[in-house]
Amino acid sequence: MAKKNQNEMSFLDHLEDLRWLLVRSTVAILIMAFVTYFISDYLFDTIIFGPTRATFFTYVYFCELSHSLGFADSICITEMPFIIQNTEMEGQVNVFIWICVLAGFILAFPYILWEVWKFISPALYANEKKNAKVFIFFSSLLFFLGVLFGYFIVIPMSVNFVATFTVSPVVLNQFTLNSYIGMVKTSVLASGLFFELPIIIYFLTKLGLVTPSFLRKNRKYAIVLVLIIAAIVTPPDVVSQTIVAIPMLLIFEASIFISAFVSKKIKE
């Protein structure tokens, strides 16, 4: 990438642009958070606490998959032996606010990408600037796919694991509201941002900071890391771990392909 403007901006000018990027993005998040206030009942009862019920879509589908693969009821979930309790006076208020903010961030993500694109576009070539819609579309698509992956795969697998794991029948699982919500936020955001890996690799390759050979050389470490993550967030069975690991490995392989494509274009 190379800067095409004749009049180069000063460091303070860049900081000013960055400041307004953050201000406008924050306002967008707050507006969308306010919108989610009007559907807060559905947001909490159906979406946030959906994975705590045995009737959740993922559990039902996995049970049907278990039967179709000949594993009988090996990964079927019939009950969730735990309760979620609030132990802090302001606990539910804080959770309500932060979940609305999280939902606002997810909904405002395409706009945030647009702001980021405007910030980095002066450093792009003229033909690259025309790709704004493509960048925003694919970045948003990957992020939303990651959020859905985190919600429908990572969270249910994590909830199922911690709900059924016990060191002794004497110990009852009573999770705090903050710990459950923290897991939801981490799983959704981490998955959404992880699915942005191909976009990140694209720009890092353009900058010369990453090469296809580097990614291929470290593929084995990436595979081990993905399998470790899958083993942590899923029950101790091969089917669940495979379901979590495969999409993550595909994202990494797609990143290698994109890096190779960009490197070839640069050499041309």
Give an account of the 3D structure:
By secondary structure, this protein is an all-alpha fold. The protein folds into 2 domains: about 10-195, no CATH class; about 195-268. It is built from 11 helices and 2 strands; from the N terminus they run αααβαααβααααα. The chain has helices at about 10-35, 40-50, 55-70, 90-120, 125-130, 130-165, 175-195, 195-205, 210-215, 220-235, 240-265; strands spanning about 80-85, 175. Strands 1-2 form a two-stranded parallel sheet. The protein is globular and about 65 Å long. This is Sec-independent protein translocase protein TatC. Belongs to the TatC family. It is a multi-pass membrane protein.
Distance between the termini: 14 Å
SSE order, as H and E? HHHEHHHEHHHHH
- Give the percentage of residues in beta strands: under 5%
Q: Give me the side-by-side strand order of the main sheet.
A: 1-2
Total strand count, please? 2
Q: What form results from the Cα inertia axes?
A: globular
Over all CA atoms, what is the radius of gyration? 22 Å
User: How many distinct folded domains?
Assistant: 2
- Determine the fraction of residues in helical runs and give it as a percent range: over 70%
Which structural class is indicated by helix and strand composition?
Answer: mainly alpha
Oligomeric composition of the shown chains: single chain
Count of alpha/pi helices: 11
Q: Which spans have pLDDT < 50 for at least 5 consecutive residues?
A: 1-7
Q: Please summarize the sheet with the most strands.
A: 2 strands, parallel
Mean pLDDT across the residues is: 84
Function: Part of the twin-arginine translocation (Tat) system that transports large folded proteins containing a characteristic twin-arginine motif in their signal peptide across membranes.
InterPro entries: TatC
GO molecular function: proton motive force dependent protein transmembrane transporter activity
Membrane topology: Multi-pass membrane protein
